[in-house]
């Protein structure tokens, strides 16, 4: 089936931070969010390096092997981080999350590393497509396998500790999946600056209420700020529509740190 995506993106520094280390991208074939970290300029460099590296996927001709193409692009982005780290020892602690989707018709590949999130609004229900690579999720999964309950104090203490990011080191494999998009689907990629202060119920309400993708993005960011906005906030929304519902020549959107570089 031939489909197109109508997209919007936004990024906000939030209420407490002095710089925006998130980067986001939205184009006709690629959407992505990266949440950089690592002190002094490191996060901005990491997230914008990875988004800059992935961008070329948006302009290439539609292809098969979407998952393989996206997986390889993530490995190349990680390799670029390794090179930057070698050139800039002051940025040795930098790293970034990445959640990205690559379309070809109604086939879509999803790549995910870290604790940014991908959500799908379909048939009036909101699904979280990604699992956070945080220590508390790891502990919970281990406890479940052992038929036990994870210690709540321990999991809450570790809820922001990432066990996997892209940082230019080896073995930074993303979770990779192939999905089928349907007409009417609405996808949201966001950094934890949105999914932290704004719960899934509220995200669902805003995504359901705002038909226009840019208005949905703006309202989600506003919600995160109203709830304290402790972190940088980035959101990308993509609606799956019939091809004649988009003109096909909208420019891609780049937001956050990647828009500065
Ligand atoms: Mn963040």
From TrEMBL:
It comes from Actinomadura spongiicola. This is Serine/threonine-protein phosphatase. It comes from the Bacteria. PANTHER family: PROTEIN PHOSPHATASE 1L, PROTEIN PHOSPHATASE 2C. Residues 6-240 form the PPM-type phosphatase domain. It holds the Pfam family PP2C. PROSITE patterns: PPM_2 (PS51746). SUPFAM superfamilies: PP2C-like (SSF81606). One of its GO terms (molecular function) is protein serine/threonine phosphatase activity. InterPro entries: PP2C (IPR015655), PPM-type-like_dom_sf (IPR036457), PPM-type_phosphatase-like_dom (IPR001932).
């Amino acid at each position: 089936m031939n489909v197109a995506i109508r997209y919007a993106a936004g990024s906000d520094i939030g209420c407490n931070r002095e710089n925006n280390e998130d980067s986001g991208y939205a184009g006709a074939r690629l959407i992505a969010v990266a949440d950089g970290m690592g002190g002094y300029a490191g996060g901005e460099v990491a997230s914008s390096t990875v988004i800059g590296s992935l961008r070329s996927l948006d302009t290439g001709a539609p292809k098969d092997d979407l998952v393989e193409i996206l997986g390889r692009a993530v490995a190349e982005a990680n390799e670029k981080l390794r090179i930057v780290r070698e050139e800039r020892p002051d940025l040795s602690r930098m790293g970034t999350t990445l959640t990205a989707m690559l379309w070809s018709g109604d086939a879509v590949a999803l790549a995910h590393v870290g604790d940014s999130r991908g959500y799908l609004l379909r048939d009036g229900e909101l699904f979280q497509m990604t699992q956070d690579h945080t220590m508390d999720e790891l502990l919970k999964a281990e406890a479940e396998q052992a038929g036990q309950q994870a210690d709540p104090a321990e999991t809450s203490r570790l809820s922001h500790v990432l066990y996997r990011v892209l940082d230019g080191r080896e073995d930074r494999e993303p979770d990779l999946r192939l999905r089928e998009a349907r007409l009417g689907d609405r996808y949201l990629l966001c950094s934890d600056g949105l999914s932290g202060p704004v719960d899934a119920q509220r995200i669902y309400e805003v995504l359901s209420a705002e038909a226009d993708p840019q208005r949905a993005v703006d309202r989600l960011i506003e919600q995160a700020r109203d709830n304290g906005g402790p972190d940088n906030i980035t959101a990308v929304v993509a609606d799956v529509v019939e091809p004649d519902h988009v003109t096909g020549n909208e420019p891609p959107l780049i937001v956050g740190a990647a828009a500065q570089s």
